[in-house]
Amino acid sequence: xxxxxxTSYPSLCDLSSDSLAIRLLDDAEYNAxxxxxxxxxxxxxxxxxxxxxxxxxLWIVEHQDVYTLGQAGKPEHILYQTDTPIIHTDRGGQVTWxxxxxxxxxxxxxxxxxxxxxxxxxxxxxxxxxxxxxxYLPDTxxxxxxxxAPGVYIYNHDGDMLGKIASLGFKIKQGFSYHGIAINLIxxxxxxxxxxxxxxxxxxxxxxxxxGRFEPEQVGEFIDKFIKNIARRHAGLVELRPxxxxx
Length: 247
Fold this sequence. Notes:
Blueprint: E1 20-28, H1 30-49, E2 56-63, E3 66-69, E4 86-88, E5 95-98, E6 102-108, H2 118-134, E7 141-145, E8 152-156, E9 161-173, E10 176-184, H3 219-234
């Protein structure tokens, strides 16, 4: 399976600013990445109490293959064992898969500093995903969030849901967010067959490269557009749209 190799797009680091830093992690082992993310968040909490401010951060990650169970994750949503590690973690949500060909973005934000609530964070994440994915979909398809299941899904114009293309799972600690989102770009979808994705039995999964207008060589372009969209939202330049979610 082809990798998205985020470190091959060093120009993304040029998107860093005084208020938002971009970090790229390729072939990232899950536990080490999580520990670094948590420790960074705890340090920012302590520094803020001391009057020291740091830029918010976006971590662009391609993980080594792994299943993760959220804080309230139920083991019964793992349907059968594979050779892929299963790790318990502290984000919200149930079980999901991360790995080669999938884009993961961690949002290390000071929500209080941004005057942003948790619902705002989730909605900005979902709408940023919708914005960029929609550029690569045929006119007959649309990307939408759902009221009953956080994430972004692909629908046809008859209202049929074709699959879940992006998952969300944040953790908030003393007003600071970490963890984030995962978008299926060019990854193999078969690892999802071993689980009930995000705790939903029979949930079909989708990837962007299945819909005819996205090629592996466009991964860098996609990441660039996505990070720019988030950066504009972080700077307060993009307002949330009214909720237009589908069931």
